[in-house]
C-alpha cells in the first residue's frame, strides 16, 4: 500500500498541486499584484537607488552591518540585494520570484519528507 503512495506519478501530482496551490493562494491574497506595497517594497527601492551609485559589495556590507544591530538576517539582505540588481523595481518580476521561491521551498520539503 505504501509503495503506491511513493510512485513517481504521485510525486508529479503533488508537485503540480503545490505549484497550483501557491499561485492560487498568492493570487487570492493579492500578493501577485504588481503594485508597490510600502511595508515590503521600500527596501527594494532604497537598494535599487543605492546600487546606482555603489557596488554590490558595499551595499551588502552596509545593509548587513546596520541590520546586525537589530537582528541576524544576512541571507535576507543577500537575496534582496541580488534581486534588486536583477529585477530593479519591476514588482511583477519580484512577485514571480517570490512564488518561485515558495514553490522551490515546498518541493524541497516534500522531497525531504518522502525520504524519511
Mean pLDDT: 82
SSE arrangement, N to C: HHHHHH
How large a portion of the residues is in β-strands, by DSSP E? under 5%
Radius of gyration from the alpha-carbon trace, in angstroms: 18 Å
Percent of residues in helices: over 70%
The helix/strand class is mainly alpha
Catalogue the unreliable spans.
none
Overall form? globular
Number of helices in the DSSP assignment: 6
Total beta-strand segments: 0
Cα distance spanning the termini: 17 Å
Largest sheet at a glance?
none
Summarize the structure in words.
The chain is mostly helical and 116 residues long. The chain has a domain at 30-101. It has helices at residues 2-5, 8-29, 38-53, 56-68, 74-87, 91-115. The two termini are 17 Å apart. The mean pLDDT is 82.
Key phrases:
116 residues; 6 helices; mainly alpha
Can you describe this structure in just a few lines?
This protein is an all-alpha fold. Helices cover 81% and strands 0% of the residues.
List strands and helices in order, with pairings.
Layout lengths: L1 H4 L2 H22 L8 H16 L2 H13 L5 H14 L3 H25 L1
